[in-house]
Design brief:
Structural class: mainly alpha
Radius of gyration: 21 Å
CATH superfamily of the largest domain: Hypothetical protein, domain 2
Number of strands: 0
Number of helices: 11
Distance between the termini: 57 Å
Shape: elongated
CATH topology of the largest domain: Endonuclease III, domain 1
CATH class of the largest domain: Mainly Alpha
Length: about 230
């Protein structure tokens, strides 16, 4: 006897935010906007190609270290064609101060080859095409698309993950879960900037070990503040 077809599993509906919580979240991002109306990446770049390359190099590295490397690198190889001419071995000395530079050099050259062969040396600015490039995952694609104001996106790195939890914006256990929650909670007009606000806040104010609650512009809206005031850590 044939088994009856399985019923499709219904995903639970997302709970609507209470008006007070909507107001709290809106106020958090309003204050971030007051501090910096047009936040941008701290990576230095002058073209989409330089941006994609810099973001790919920044994995497990600081923006400061990447900028030091790319300042010299982009002076000699600021296009896929020039990067191919430089070659993998020629590239390595420029990025040897950055973590995982051997793997990154391989990916940068492989990406340059694809861009020249398939896209005439231009960077394809769609998520699907970007994520198909070597060394370019979802997070890198999100940074690029968001920075260039092509697609609202929130790339969840360690700073965004930490700040989202401390501010009560997410309870997600994975970057994807945190991303989904943030995308559903951040006011629509602010989505293209929220990524940078959260990163900057985590990098300079809501730091990992000793958050600077006394300097925080949203401290009165933060459900985690008392944890640091009473215990000195989370």
């Amino acid at each position: 006897m044939a088994k009856p077809p399985k019923r499709p599993v219904r995903k639970p509906r997302k709970k609507a935010l209470a008006p007070a919580e909507q107001a709290r979240i809106a106020e958090i991002f309003r204050r971030f906007e007051d501090q910096e109306s047009d936040p941008r990446t701290e990576l230095d770049y002058a073209s989409p190609y330089e941006l994609v390359t810099a973001v790919a190099l920044s994995a497990q590295a600081t923006d400061v270290s990447v900028n030091k490397a790319t300042k010299k690198l982009f002076a000699v190889a600021d296009t896929p064609q020039k990067m191919l001419a430089l070659g993998e071995e020629g590239l390595k000395p420029f990025i040897s101060s950055i973590g995982l530079y051997n793997t990154k050099a391989k990916n940068v050259i492989a990406t340059a080859n694809i861009l020249v062969d398939r896209y005439g040396g231009e960077v394809p600015l769609t998520r699907e095409a970007l994520q198909a490039l070597p060394g370019v995952g979802r997070k890198t694609a999100s940074v690029v698309l968001n920075e260039l104001r092509i697609e609202p996106a929130i790339a969840v790195d360690t700073h965004v993950f930490r700040v989202a939890h401390r501010l009560g914006l997410s309870t997600g256990k994975t970057p994807d879960q945190v991303e989904d929650e943030l995308m559903s909670k951040v006011p629509g007009p602010l989505l293209t900037r929220a990524h940078h606000w959260l990163i900057l806040h985590g990098r300079y104010v809501c730091v990992a070990r000793r958050p600077k609650c006394e300097e925080c512009p949203v401290a009165d809206l933060c459900p985690s503040r008392h944890l640091f005031v009473t215990t000195g850590g989370l």
